[in-house]
Amino acid sequence: MTTVKNIYDYINSVAPYESQEEWDNSGHLVGDFRKEVKKVVMSLDCTKAVVNFAKDINADLVLTHHPLIFGGLKNVMSDTAVYNLINSNIAYLCAHTNFDKAECGINTNLAKLLGLNDTYTMCDGFVLVGSLDSPMSMDDFAEYIEQQLGTAGIRYIDTDKLIKTVAVGGGACSEFMFDALQKADCFVTGDLKYHEMLDASEAGFAVVSAGHFETENLPFLMFKENLEQIFTDVEFVVAPRENPVKTI
């Protein structure tokens, strides 16, 4: 029999919760540690729609990357994700910054999706650097990212230089941009502000803002294969969810 704690302990063994950032709130946030788990719903975020899906398929646990509860809750109102989890007796785990920098985590999987080789980490694991099989123009590389991550409306700074060495930081890693660009021809992350991209352009650097959802969704869901190999008595189901932020 697999319990919530069994799954928590496995995540903790490959992405230690003690490695999460001080401001983070990863871990076991809702439900009974001792609860038996036969079906798990996985999603980047724990939205009301995800919880309703979990309830509809009689799931025992929801596992996400982003924490549903970041700060102290002052109330738990009806028709909220937290309320619906509790009311439906569904447990909830999340693995956020501890999974970002884990060996099997977000950046490792993002690098795999982009076909990077000979990888190594920097910036306490929040950035991973690797090399493409063959150099690419910036325009071709941006199009390649769009195809590999299934994103649209990608934003990037162009360059005449060929892209061979790439640094990736899934989600919001803008604070590591200039450190990463000391080691790579291009930095790919999820969220970059206009002025951050302007600063990179002025410095002659190539950067790609590929979307927070896009740089973390598939890399998180790739963890499903690891879990299925360990917990053979549990069914892991991906919630049918698209990026709520639409682009034309």
UniProtKB/TrEMBL annotation:
GO terms for molecular function: metal ion binding. One of its GO terms (cellular component) is cytoplasm. InterPro entries: DUF34/NIF3 (IPR002678), DUF34/NIF3_sf (IPR036069). NCBIfam families: YbgI_SA1388. This is GTP cyclohydrolase 1 type 2 homolog. The keyword Metal-binding applies. Keywords: Metal-binding. A divalent metal cation binds at residues 65-66, 100, 212, 216. Transmembrane segments: none annotated. Belongs to the GTP cyclohydrolase I type 2/NIF3 family. It comes from Eubacterium coprostanoligenes.
